[in-house]
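Repro:
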Amino acid sequence: MVPDDGLTTRARRNAPVLAVHTGPGKGKSTAAFGMALRAWNQGFRVAVFQFVKSAKWKVGEEAVFRELGRLHDEHGAGGPVEWHKMGSGWSWTRKHGSDDDHAAAAADGWAEIKRRLAAEQHDFYVLDEFTYPLKWGWVDVDDVVSTLTERPGRQHVVITGRDAPQALIDAADLVTEMTKIKHPMDVGRKGQKGIEW
C-alpha cells in the first residue's frame, strides 16, 4: 500500500523513526542495541543513554560499542559512539540516594538529551530503560512526547523499558511489546554471562 501523504518513496525511507520496546519480556534493550549496530554500520552517530543501570555494572554491549567507537576514531569505520550512564550508580532498586536524588539525575539526563536533539548532535539514540523515570514521574511524559515528535532532522530514537506510557506509544512509529512466555529465572536459575550481560 502506498500512502497518500504527498511524500516520495525516498522521503518516506529517510523519515526519522521513534521506536518503543516495552513489555515484561526479555530482549527490549538487546533489540535496541541490535538496531544501534545497524546504525553504526551505516556511519550514523550513535549515542546510548542508560537511565537505570548502575554505573558500576559491567554491560557487555557497552564494551562492544566502546570498541566500535574506537574503531571509528582510529580507522574511520562505522560511526562515532557515545555511551552514558545517568547518575552515579542509581537504579530501579532505589539504592544509593534518595528518590529526590534519583529524580534530579533523571531530569538532568533528559535535559541533556533534549539539548542534543535540538542541536542534532547524534543520528541514532538509545534511551535505555527510559520508561521507568516516566512511570515514576521523574520526567514529564508530555515534555518527552512533544520534544520527540518535534525533533529536527532525521534523528532516530529508540526507547526501552516496561510500562511505556500510552502517550509515548501513541506518538511512536514502531512499538514492540516483548511478552514473556518462559524464562529460566522462573525456576530459580541465575543470570548468566553472555545471556544477561
